[in-house]
Specification:
InterPro entries: Aromatic_deC, PyrdxlP-dep_de-COase, PyrdxlP-dep_Trfase, PyrdxlP-dep_Trfase_major, PyrdxlP-dep_Trfase_small. The protein has 461 residues and is an alpha/beta fold. Helix content is 41%, strand content 12%. The chain has two domains: 69 residues; 261 residues, 3-Layer(aba) Sandwich (Aspartate Aminotransferase, domain 2).
Length: 461
């Protein structure tokens, strides 16, 4: 063994304790460190020929990199609809790295058994029936892409071909209809060879991001043959929800695969005041839910659900003797693009076991309350205006006068010490978006963020 490896192995308990202390110090300082530090670009160091060992590497990291990390795990990082990591999720993630399991194969089954139990818990959490099977993937983009890949194979089934076997040329043109599709849907269509132009925008309801069911039916009548409909259960700008009952009912007259992007909106199921928005989620053919958002597990983690795991396996099966057969209950290696599949489920298992439905209901309802308070604070600041009602956990707003992208970027940059917001565009207007999904966020954080916003607006004006 290399002498430096041997030394680190011999000192591993002490080195891991040092790492623990550094991690605790970082988390303890989240409340006071800049939410997003001033942009900084270090000099690039050459690859070391001779390593320095873990202890020295930890010390260099603490000096060179750690001070410039954002407080993205903290309560005022309100960009990207990003959660943090609950204590239990953090413990689960540490153990995931320590155990370093291959969770893909029944030849070494513990990992995928943990994943299947966890998927069952998530299915119940979101009100899905056992007609849906699920697998973990890296994020909402991959979850949407997997769902669309299954939809592509379903289209082939309807047309008597298999795109997975025969290629896209056998499938012919495809239409994907949606009112306010997330950008990851177009990216997934590009990856799958269907093309971004396959995505056809459908008219939304007046002043809303939700699709107009009448316009959707009109688009379905104008579509030649089976197609795909992508519905939204929580848009990123205003958390608007398509009428899933009305959309699903259109299948009585039209032939389409229904994919629902519920990246964070699925968590509305935990709030009695909002559960009606996703009560028809089970009617979907495939569903996307992002877990490193409101489940508050570490990056990167999401789950995808589908009613057609047979088609899923047809797309993603991996023919190699050492990976096992597909069979009636395919190993996870046959269900996603990844042959290498980290045991992401363990962090989710830990946090669900630790806090249960009640714990997550409290997180969701507190974040929703914080978003409403932030919306009220924005409405009270002279020089700002809300662009949409606060429907769940996102506040979308802009400058009352001259809302240019440049002025909003300047406003956001002024805020970065105290609160991180992301730019967006809603109804053609440049805007900022505050998304509440972190388990740490409280009313005190809202007051602090609102005060910083008021100061920044006064300075800008």
């Amino acid at each position: 063994m290399h002498p430096q490896l041997a030394e680190d192995l011999a000192q591993l308990p002490d080195l891991l304790e040092d790492t623990r202390r550094r991690a605790v110090a970082f988390l303890d300082g989240l409340g006071e460190r800049p939410v997003v530090p001033v942009p900084w670009e270090p000099e690039v160091e050459p690859l070391p020929g001779r390593g320095v060992g873990l202890r020295a590497a930890l010390e260099e990291f603490a000096v060179r990199w750690e001070p410039n990390l954002s407080a993205s795990a903290g309560p005022r990082y309100l960009g990207f609809v990003t959660g943090g990591a609950t204590p239990a999720a953090l413990a689960g993630d540490w153990l995931t790295a320590a155990a370093d399991q291959n969770s893909n194969s029944s030849l070494d089954p513990a990992g995928q058994r943990i994943e299947r139990e966890t998927v069952g818990w998530l299915r119940e959490l979101f009100g899905l029936s056992d007609a849906h099977s699920g697998t973990f993937v890296s994020g909402a983009t991959m979850s949407n892409t997997v769902g669309l890949a299954i939809a592509r194979e379903w289209l082939g089934e309807r047309r008597g071909v298999s795109p997975a076997e025969d290629g896209l040329a056998a499938l012919g043109p495809v239409r994907v209809l949606s009112g306010s599709a997330h950008s990851s849907v177009a990216k997934g269509l590009s990856v799958l060879g269907l093309g971004r132009r396959a995505l056809v925008g459908v008219e939304t309801l007046a002043g809303r991001e939700a699709v107009d069911p009448v316009a959707l039916e009109r688009a379905l009548r104008e579509t030649d043959g089976p197609c795909v409909v992508v519905a939204n259960a929580g848009t990123v700008n205003t958390v608007d929800f398509d009428d899933l009952h009305a959309i699903a009912a259109l299948r009585e007259r039209h032939d389409f695969w229904l994919h629902v992007d519920a990246a964070f909106g699925a968590f509305a199921a935990l709030s009695p005041d909002h559960a009606h928005l996703v009560e028809a989620l089970d009617l979907a053919d495939s569903v996307c839910v992002d877990l490193h958002k409101w489940l508050n597990v570490p990056y990167d983690s999401a789950v995808q659900f589908t009613r057609r795991p047979d088609l899923q396996a047809r797309v993603f099966q991996n023919s190699a003797a050492y990976l096992g057969s597909v069979g009636d209950h395919p190993d996870l290696v046959h269900l996603t693009p990844e042959n290498s599949h980290r045991l992401r489920a363990l962090a989710a298992w830990f946090t669900l076991r630790a806090y249960g439905r009640d714990g997550y209901r409290e997180i969701v309802e507190r974040d929703v309350s914080c978003a409403r308070a932030m919306g009220e604070a924005v409405a009270a600041v002279p020089g700002l205006r809300l662009l949409a009602p606060v429907r769940l956990n996102v506040v979308c707003f802009t400058l009352a006068e001259e809302p240019t992208a440049e002025r909003l970027a300047a406003l956001a940059a002024e805020l970065n010490e105290e609160v991180f917001l992301t730019p967006t565009r809603y109804a053609g207007v440049p805007a900022l978006r505050a998304a509440f999904s972190n388990w740490r966020t409280t009313d005190a954080d809202v007051r602090r963020a609102a005060d910083a916003l008021a100061r920044a607006v006064r300075k800008l004006l």
